[in-house]
Specification:
Blueprint: E1 12-14, E2 19-21, H1 23-41, E3 49-54, H2 58-69, E4 73-80, H3 84-101, E5 104-109, H4 110-114, H5 118-125, H6 129-147, E6 152-154, H7 159-171, H8 175-178, E7 184-185, E8 193-195, H9 203-213, H10 229-243, H11 247-258, H12 260-271, E9 275-276, E10 283-284, H13 290-297, E11 314-317
Parallel strand pairs: 3-4, 3-6, 4-5, 6-8
Antiparallel strand pairs: 1-2, 5-11, 7-8, 9-10
Helix pairs in contact: 1-9, 2-9, 5-6, 5-13, 7-10, 7-11
Domain tRNA(Ile)-lysidine/2-thiocytidine synthase N-terminal: 50-221
GO biological process, one term: tRNA wobble position uridine thiolation
Keywords: Transferase
Amino acid sequence: MKCVTCRGPAVIDIRRQNANYCVDHFFEQCRRQVTKAIDEWKMIEPSDRVLVAVSGGKDSLAIWDLLIELGYQADGFYVGLGIGEYSEVSHSHAAAFAESRGLTLLTVDIPTSYGYDIPTGSRAARRAPCSACGLSKRHLFDAAALEGGYDVLVTGHNLDDEAAVLFGNTLHWHTEYLGRQLPVLPARDGFPKKVKPLVRLTERETAAYCLLKGIDYLVDECPMAVGNRHLSYKEALNDIEVKSPGAKHSFYFGFLDRASKHFAPEADEDREGLEPCLTCGAPTPSGTCAFCRLVDRAGGHQPEPVPVELGAIRTRTTS
């Protein structure tokens, strides 16, 4: 197996491109695909302050590394979920990555700051664990980006993730979600600009990137994710991809090119009429936002003010 660029020994094949790459040209390919996504969708300007949502997994650490290599000013933000050893290990990977590169990692620990964890919070609020987790992380990511004065919030969603979400939303015709499933969501009142620069790379490619770069990441799936439908959608699409390489790419980018605009009006309508949450000030349809209701039902509390730049968010600067 030879590299399509230099004809040297290849280390990875990318079947949807019918191409193989050596280590150096695979790294170049990853940078090229991220750059193409950023440029095509106007995700990040060179002068932007960027906050990367970091989990300690391969995708978030890969995009943080790639953005730094591409010259962007990017800090990381980690949310401690209180899921026992899983959360401890995930934080250690995120912190080790930041320390090894002299980067800034901001953290908030939900049990310490809000008085609940995801397992007990999901039961108390009668939400699926992944629902309670996603709700909590989205709220805290948004708050960190806005309070920290960041221009862009980056998440590590890759092509597999986006194709699986699109598959689920299409199966159930969640049209309001289809209208928002874009690589970029612009900033608006109470929400930061959110971007997904990994949408042109697959999960396999981000794993290979980390392996070849020597980036140690959390391999295990979250123990709370057992039975998550999103994982079954990924498996179904993986089976299709084996028989038809490039199917995920065609499905997702075909939707963006040909169909997403038809769902935009419903998504815009869903965003109208938001007002500040009575407790935290985040945008909500009325009264108290879903995050604050979750905190209340889980027996938690809003964080006490602390004398740091980002309130409940602790800043960790490594040298």
